[in-house]
Amino acid sequence: MSGEEFVPLSLTPMLIGVLAAVACALPGNFLVLRRQALIGDAISHVVLPGIVVAFLLTGLVAAAPMMLGAAGAALVSVVMIEAIRRLGNIEPGAAMGLTFTTLFAAGVLLLEQSDTSSVHLDVEHALYGNLESLIWLDAIGWSSLLDPLALAGLPPELGRVVIALIGVIGFLWLFWRPLVVSTFDESFAQAMGIATNRLGVALVMVAALAAVAAFDAVGSIIVIAMFICPPAAARLMTNRLEHQMAWSVVFAVLSAVLGYVFAGYAPLWLGFENAVSAAGMIATVSGLILALAACFAPHRYRSGAPAV
Amino acid sequence: MSLELAANMGAAPKAEIPTESPLAIRGMTVSYGQKPVVFSVDMTVEEGSMTAIIGPNGAGKSTLLKAALGIVSPLAGQALVFGKPLKAARHRIAYVPQRASVDWDFPTRVIDVVLMGLYRELGLLRRIRPQHMDKARACLERVGMSDFADRQIGQLSGGQQQRVFLARALAQEADLYLLDEPFAGVDAATEKAIIDVLKSLRSEGKTVVAVHHDLTTVRSYFDRVFLINTRKVAEGTVDDAFTPDMLNQTYGGRLATGQIDQLELAAG
Prior knowledge:
The complex is a heterodimer. Chain A is mainly alpha-helical. Helix content of chain A is about 75%, strand content about 0%.
């Protein structure tokens, strides 16, 4: 494929897919280790009602109110999960399942009842995103990467995922040590004075930031998959957290690139006429990578065998 | 009457807290739900001593430690560490939680766990330098685990995991060591290694408090005991407080007479 075709049509969607996948996979490592993988699922669902409410209140489909609405919904869901868990004495997984399905359903109802026909906001978009449409029409080839005029025409979603990714990396870099200590041994962390509860909420909020930015571009399916699949596969590759983080990035990038390419071309290779959803294919590829890791990865058996 | 009110009334008037004690607990009351687990407990730990916290299952031994450390929030009561509120004295405490309380499948190495003990020294962003590594290695050496520094923690036996936990506490260079069942489910060699380290800490003037289950070793390991069954039963030297009478009160007659006879107890 030549640059003239690739840069305007495929470069930006692929880049957005990659950045969104990495932004979700990084905090996903901690969520999976904390047995909170479902929180990622919950967040990606409650983003929908959050965005709808933000739209109804402001009448705008702009980044700032959507982000705020989604973050607010994430906060509400965290509080709801805790409340259900404590008041109802219900196990955390069930409390999360209850919360996010209910809020997502409420979001769908809100969306159907409100007049959003004029804007690009619908259930299908919420699930699959619109990765393929995030094209860069101002580009004419690789040279456009240096052309300020063309660069100004980049899809705004790209800027949002870049900001989210910077936020995620900044948070993990700054709070790496307390996050690791409190994830491994919460009571030891508390005894040393680490505010583990606040740190846990901050982690969920950062995950929510990644989910919101990714949701806008690639939909909730991919968000759920990227929170869980790359970190889970990465855990099977290594016994060190630093290396696990690196592997999760590799798998996230691989899923996004292969998923995007396969979505465009695999159906043609197989004799079908139309390309399939890139978000769906990216999530599928990440699942396949996890399956391969479960079958062949070096650290898939961790029996904790007694050392000699 | 609410539990909280009852606890406050039970605690008042507050005994004066000796300011030099490594750990002074007054009127500590903790409940999970409506049932108090620890009720209006006072405790005064003597500096340079080794104290065993003894009591039946569910008697509030671990909870008392956690409340003193601020890990669980008490309904009432307070703890002073070397005469200061907890916040001002955290750096002087090292805590060894129950081994079973963490996920040993966590992707980390033995040396990394010991380095966690240096968290207060390293803070958020300070780089780990050779002197930090040396300190962590020395702590591993002290518990006989130097050869395991690069192992993944899940590959260790229970006893080895417990030694790593102790090494992490040593890295904190604290003055007060609080250990929650350090001998639970460990092999004989580890038990010996741990008690040797604890005794050497005492000889350096440090203070050790451990939740302990094995009544047969109390006399040889510890110099003081704290008997608890939700309420404090007794506190003092092994000779004064570790008596058949007090044990019967603590365990509510659940210890067989034959068991008690074997304990080399002080005359009651």
